[in-house]
Known about the structure:
By secondary structure, the protein is of the alpha/beta class. It has 13 helices and 13 strands. The chain has helices at residues 22-33, 75-87, 102-108, 131-139, 152-162, 216-229, 248-257, 273-278, 294-301, 314-317, 332-343, 346-363, 366-380, and strands spanning 10-15, 40-45, 62-65, 91-95, 113-118, 146-149, 169-171, 202-207, 237-242, 264-268, 282-285, 306-309, 324-327. It comes from Plasticicumulans lactativorans. Keywords: Transferase.
Amino acid sequence: xxxxxxxxxxxxxxxxxxxxxxxxxxxxxxxxxxxxxxxxxxxxxxxxxxxxxxxxxxxxxxxxxxxxxxxxxxxxxxxxxxxxxxxxxxxxxxxxxxxxxxxxxxxxxxxxxxxxxxxxxxxxxxxxxxxxxxxxxxxxxxxxxxxxxxxxxxxxxxxxxxxxxxxxxxxxxxxxxxxxxxxxxxxxxxxxxxxxxxxxxxxxxxxxxxxxxxxxxxxxxxxxxxxxxxxxxxxxxxxxxxxxxxxxxxxxxxxxxxxxxxxxxxxxxxxxxxxxxxxxxxxxxxxxxxxxxxxxxxxxxxxxxxxxxxxxxxxxxxxxxxxxxxxxxxxxxxxxxxxxxxxxxxxxxxxxxxxxxxxxxxxxxxxxxxxxxxxxxxxxxxx
Length: 383
């Protein structure tokens, strides 16, 4: 008698919402690149999902929306319990504090593999989080079988503040698709508005939601300061801010007050980020807090030098003085100085960009990321 092959273990990825974002992009990359003979996947969204779900390549991956209502939605737990009972996953993988309580249901439901990832902070590092968040993480620690920390800072927090044993913490960096993100060639500026960037322009740019933690207003202030310190830069220096959010009006006001609005392009949220990155010369990440920044990795893979704030794992991603520059957060003056240093030194700009591409290929491949997650999944299943 022929024995039917056993289906690979199912991983239920529990996230807040499937939409454009670094965490969500990491989930999609993991689902798309994990060998199908190793693990199957389902994505459970506590709220809902957007057209971003189309980035998931396999139609076999179920994406489920639980439509969480604002505030404390008690019915959410019943709906999540029902989904877990139907899916019967071998592993429940939650991400960030907002989904951590799903580990309790996984524990009560007898799910053997329970993995929780911490991807970054919504405030200025762990010290900016309310005390109740730290208490909740400590309270639910027994329900988590293994932690994934995106960066050394988060791993230390989990060990020192949450009390997770070091042996139950894996530090895994995001991987970047170096085929999708690559340096530009002739015609790379075609997506920019006509007449926006002259042939000798140095185009700065950033990508991200326009929200407090990403701090695009500091980048706008640094850009304005660079123009004030180097008046000739008005002829060549340009700024691109990709993304949408509550800080758009503030960014535009800063630029308008310095008579620099025409030197900046704010196209809103875009789906063609790889091509837009290839249109830039320098990438700037002004965040007040970060976990492991996907956009830094994407910028390096695109052959761009990176100016980034010294927060989160940024210093673990780029090599200061080799692939870019680290500056303090919320400090326009040193950011402006870093911008002007690239404007006046094209050889340094090209050298840092090339070194960033080489570093992305050597250390932050998708294959390496997938292999590390597979090892964590095997470990929690005792394989």
